[in-house]
Design brief:
Blueprint (H helix, E strand, L loop, with lengths): L4 E4 L2 E4 L15 E6 L2 E6 L8 H6 L24 H7 L1
Antiparallel strand pairs: 1-2, 3-4
């Protein structure tokens, strides 16, 4: 979906089309983060887990009747990643 960037005071702004603006309402605070060449906008409103029981109740007894496969965890040598992590900082 395309939209245009416009000037708002000393900042630039973007109009969020109604079709995808269901994450928040006008006047509410959001978090904006630059990830590479992408801007990510997240609602700061806490989402409730109040309806989680109803969501799980939708899974019938035939959902994963054999359970999950066991995957053995393996030890990771984090020291080999330190040069990579330190070079990005």
């Amino acid at each position: 979906m395309k939209t245009k960037v416009f000037k708002s005071g000393n900042s630039i702004a973007v109009r969020i089309p109604k079709e995808i603006a269901d994450i928040t309402e006008a006047g509410k605070e959001v978090q904006i983060e630059k990830v590479g060449e992408t801007l990510v906008i997240r609602s700061l409103e806490r989402q409730s887990l109040a309806g989680i029981g109803k969501l799980f109740a939708q899974f019938g007894p035939d959902f994963m009747p054999q359970g999950r496969d066991f995957i053995e965890e393996r030890e990771i040598d984090w020291d080999k990643f330190l040069p990579i992590i330190n070079s990005e900082a």
